[in-house]
Amino acid sequence: MINAIPENAFVAGTYQKILAYVAATALADADIRLNEEVVFFNARHDPQSTLPPMTTIRTRSGTQQTYDEVVLTAPLGWLKRHKYDAFPSDCPLPSRLLQAIDNISYSRLEKVYITFPMAFWQQDTVSAASHSEDSPNSRLSSSSASSAKSSTSTYPSFTHFSTPNYAPHPPDIAWNQTLVNLAALPDTNSHPTLLFYLYGPCATHLVNLLKDIPVSTSPSSPYHQTLRTFFEPYYSRLPNYDILSPSCTPSAFLATNWQLDPFAGNGAYTNIQVGLENGDRDIEVMREGVGEDRRLWLAGEHTAPFIALGTTTGGYWSGEGVARRIVKLYDALEVSEEVVAARERDREEMKKEVLSVEERDVANANANANGLAL
């Protein structure tokens, strides 16, 4: 049976193994230079020249290198800030590409991890009934308290706080947040941590609160206290919360600050804003880039297939797409006569070994019975 509503999947074990797998070939065979910030791309197109175009890059230290092909995977936010100064003034990016970069928005999402000594919200929720809805030591919401009396299930994986009136915020700005319960992950990955997703003005407000405060693991530090003050109105509404219990006191905080990180593009990912016109064409223009004319290709989640915009999957797919275009440009997809002959020999061998229809059906049935999808 196929679920008509797709799941909101969460990578419980982080992307570590995925990154190790996709990076293995590059780590083994490529010349990777870390801590070399590229600040300028001299990509030119001379229609009068008979030589293929090349791109020269310059690092912040002044080093220059020239390449046949350059794939620029800088975030959209970086392109917005450097669409002029990172390219030659006498050969700027095409006007339509500049317009597309301006048209598509870049989001302000941030994440905050809050770890507790134990996942108090995951305790057998029947015990939460002992906390009266009017108890001064319990901030369990009435809806949660009601469900706690009749359910022993764990707390949901996702919670949304929509325009809370129990936390201070500007009255004319939505202050909504999303909470992911990391204690609900599979046993090997579960831990007593709440992951908050903040976005828009709320995320910017928190980043500004923390920008001059050093990150610290000390509970008495300004970093810890600032985050606790901000988030306590939210996590205190979870089941079984008791203001006097050490289990309900955060032991650690960690917040992103992507809006202050130039290598993240001072933001998070592509955002299609309300009122945008011809956004699909803007994405296509960025996807096309100037690779075929100037050998400078654009990749990243902002150039991904529409279904994967703003995702890590989209970023990966965009890189594959550029790689295919470069290969096609060099006619590397032409198959040699030797390869064709070898494939023909393989086909003949397969014909000799093919099962009859009846045998194949039996084999498929047996395989499916063993849990294989054919």
General description of the model:
The chain has 3 domains: 33-107 and 269-329, FAD/NAD(P)-binding domain, CATH 3.50.50; 110-262, no CATH class; 337-369, no CATH class. It contains 11 helices and 12 strands. The chain has helices at residues 16-29, 76-82, 95-103, 142-148, 200-210, 222-235, 279-288, 291-294, 312-329, 337-353, 357-369; strands at 38-43, 55-59, 64-67, 70-72, 105-106, 110-115, 158-161, 177-181, 193-198, 252-255, 270-271, 296-298. The strands form 4 sheets. Strands 7-8-9-6-10 form a 5-stranded antiparallel β-sheet. A 3-stranded antiparallel β-sheet has the order 1-2-3, with no helix packed on it. Strands 4-12 form a two-stranded parallel sheet. The longest helix has 18 residues, at 312-329. The protein starts with 15 loop residues before the first helix and ends in a 5-residue tail after the last helix. Residues 125-153 and 353-374 have low confidence and may be disordered.
What structural category characterises the helix and strand content?
alpha+beta
Number of helices: 11
Overall number of structural domains: 3
Q: Summarize the helix and strand pattern as letters.
A: HEEEEHHEEHEEEHHEEHHEHHH
Beta fraction of the residues?
A: 5-15%
Low-confidence segments, ≥5 residues, pLDDT <50? 125-153, 353-374
Oligomer: single chain
Q: Considering DSSP H and I runs of 4 or more, what fraction of the residues is helical? A: 25-40%
Q: How many E strands?
A: 12
What is the radius of gyration computed over CA atoms, rounded to a whole number of angstroms? 27 Å
